[in-house]
Amino acid sequence: MIGIIGFGRFGRLMAEYLAGDFTVKVFNRSDKSAEISETGAIPTSLKEVCRQKVVILSVPISTMQKVLGQIAPLLRPDAMVLDVCSVKVYPTRWMLKMLPSSVSLLGTHPMFGPDSAAESLHDRKIVLCNVRTNDAPYEKVKKYLTGKGLNVIDTTPEEHDRQIAVSLSLTHFIGRSLEEFGAHELTIDTEGYKRLLNILGVVTHDTWQLFMDMHRYNPYARENRQAFSAAMARLEKKLTTQGGKNQGIV
């Protein structure tokens, strides 16, 4: 009933949860048959995955257009296609442009990952963007998700990307900056510093490709990244001018 394209860390997480309630078939470019079977899902071909009523795209944003071109002629006319990208404006635009008009389209962004949701989905957030789905199936999806303990947020692709450019893209930018700086555990530390290292740990669990994609394909990421960098520059200027003047700092 449900097909998943892509079996990375998040694809595996979805398969583990969904296989308990549905028949789940998974296609991955490289052979991961053993790992897929471990989740209770069924490894199969791309063609067979596209025959399912619900098809979930769990692929990097940078490969999504290529995948859409491959699946467009394979989908059943009444299919519902979902994506789980961390940005929404471009993926939903591509789905509308490249997939058959008879196919229902739903943009999603699960606000959790394999680490934070390893034990439970309770009280985690998931964003839904109703790109092209009738009310009845849309409400059915929402009911299933809330039944799993998820908090569902209805919004538009544009509003999602505006907010996520700060709450996710900027957070990852800070974490990667700490990595570039060489931040590490210290004997003499503070609780605040430990929280910074926690951000570093979280973002480096994700791939560099994801980091690049969330900045490259979010139309609001660059402006927020630049605003943050400008704010740091202003603080540095205040420290060197006001601090030097008032305290004799050279």
Break the fold down into its secondary structure elements and pairings.
Elements: E1 2-5, H1 9-18, E2 24-27, H2 33-38, E3 42-43, H3 46-49, E4 54-57, H4 64-71, E5 80-83, H5 89-98, E6 104-110, E7 125-132, H6 135-147, E8 151-154, H7 157-181, H8 191-204, H9 208-216, H10 221-247
Parallel strand pairs: 1-2, 1-4, 2-3, 4-5, 5-6, 7-8
Antiparallel strand pairs: 6-7
Helix pairs in contact: 4-5, 7-8, 7-10
Describe the structure.
With 250 residues, the chain is an alpha/beta fold. The protein has two domains: 2-155, NAD(P)-binding Rossmann-like Domain (Rossmann fold, 3-Layer(aba) Sandwich); 160-239, no CATH class. Helix content is 50%, strand content 15%. The longest helix has 27 residues, at 221-247.
Could you give me the name of the CATH homologous superfamily of the largest domain?
NAD(P)-binding Rossmann-like Domain
Task: Please provide the count of β strands.
Answer: 8
Shape: globular
Span of the ends, CA to CA: 69 Å
Strand order of the largest sheet: 3-2-1-4-5-6-7-8
Return the domain count: 2
Give a short summary of the structure.
With 250 residues, the chain is an alpha/beta fold. It contains 10 helices and 8 strands. It has 2 domains: 154 residues, NAD(P)-binding Rossmann-like Domain (Rossmann fold, 3-Layer(aba) Sandwich), CATH 3.40.50; 80 residues, no CATH class.
